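ingest -> fold -> write
write: protein_1
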Amino acid sequence: MSTTTKGTAHIYGINGTVTGLTVQSYTVSSSWANADEVTNSVGEVIAVRYSDKRTNLTVEGLVPTTYGAAIGDALTFTGNGIAFTGGHITQIEERGEAKGFMRISVTAVDFENIS
């Protein structure tokens, strides 16, 4: 199938894989688990120290046959310039409907100092 782009090109679609799923969407976010604040004499924050970075990944996909991962298993996801390789599954959610495909959402967390 040929494509033509007019205007500014943008990333289209999902170029990502997770073993056992046909990936339909994903969300990656990073945050600090610790934020230590320093306040002055009137309670205004004048410095902040961040530590313990965490990266969270949620992948939603269709299941071709069966999905065999479990909470605590390692999860790797690569695609669209993202490499999530050190995370462990913290939640698995299954959704089904009468006239639709079964969907699985898998959430994993990668802790900065745990390999």
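write: protein_2
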Amino acid sequence: MGVGFGTRRLKPSEVEAWLGQVMVPVEPGERFARRLRAKLIELRGARPTRGWVTLLAGVAVVLAAAIWLGAAVRLVLAGVVIFGVLANRRRKKTLSTKP
């Protein structure tokens, strides 16, 4: 099984050798390491939530409630329509059988 396509396919051993040459470990700069440590030390929940996150969650809840309410109203209306159609058929049937 080779890696690549076309006329030049690399064998897995060639890929491993190439990666061994290319991927050389690099020592990170002091500034980068200090910033990374600072980000890792910061605890989740240590600072208050941002206002826009709370606002977005509130909007999402209101939107979900509106969608649910719309679906419920549609189901109720569908039930009323079905009930009306059935009642209308019965009424037409009783009117047509009377002389």
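write: annotation protein_2
The longest helix spans residues 51-97.
The mean pLDDT is 82.
pipeline exit 0
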